[in-house]
Amino acid sequence: MSRSNPDLFEFFGKGRGRPASSARAVSTPVRHEVATVTVSRRLMVLLGAGAVLLSSLAFLGGLAIGRGKRLGDGAGLVRPDKPVEPVRDTWILRGQPLPKVSMAGSDNLEHRSLAAFRERYPSLAPFIFSTPVEEGRGRVVSGHFRLIVRGFDTEASALQWAKVLSRERVAEYAPFRDCRPEKAPR
Predict the structure, then answer these.
(1) Are strands 91-94 and 139-152 parallel, antiparallel or unpaired?
(2) Buried (b) or exposed (e) across 58-75, using 16+ Cβ within 10 A?
(3) H helices of the chain, where?
(4) CA 128 to chain CA centroid, nearest Å
(5) Quick one: 159 exposed, middle or buried, by C-beta within 10 A (0-12, 13-18, 19+)?
(6) Distance spanning both ends of the chain, measured CA to CA
(7) Judging by beta carbons within 10 Å of its beta carbon (0-12, 13-18, 19+), is residue 96 exposed, middle or buried?
(8) CA distances to 15, 94, 149, 167, 181 from 130, in Å
């Protein structure tokens, strides 16, 4: 289907009746009149002064809000009727490293020992946990865990519990054998 619209031919730069050649014709752009905008020196000075004034007001407002947050609500956080008590040191018992799977079978020794100690000593139940064994520099020994009892108020009470727990056995293991009280890390 051939169209002989001269507008399209002029747009793409082909002349009428001219055979197509390997050289491509480039169309020349049509020049339009561009309206020029002139701004006087007085208007430029006023716009610049307005921008400086606006940015300085925003900066001072940010300073005022920050200072108000820092000084304003800090007194409401501390209760004046109670004196501040220093944090007391607590003591922990750290058990022996144990494998997660016992030698007797495929039962999970970690869950079994936690359940046994929580059942035998309900007063220690909220304070006994199992953690992975670390060999140094934060590296974890895979397949091993240790039991930890936290929250003893004094070293003497921790030592009493260490004597009691050192006699206990789960499967063929004694998780708290030869354990000594340690200060809890903060």
Answers:
(1) antiparallel
(2) eeeeeeeeeeeeeeeeee
(3) 6-12, 41-72, 74-77, 109-120, 155-166
(4) 27
(5) middle
(6) 87
(7) middle
(8) 88, 10, 9, 19, 17
The residue type at 171 = A
Structural tokens at position 141: 């020994």
Residue with tokens 């304070």: 127
Share of the chain above pLDDT 90, in %: 19
pTM of the complete model: 0.50
Tens-digit pLDDT profile for residues 18-70: 555 555 656 666 667 777 878 889 999 999 999 999 999 999 999 888 887 77
Contact between residue 53 and residue 37 where contact means Cβ atoms under 8 Å apart: no
Residue 101 has pLDDT above 60, yes or no: yes
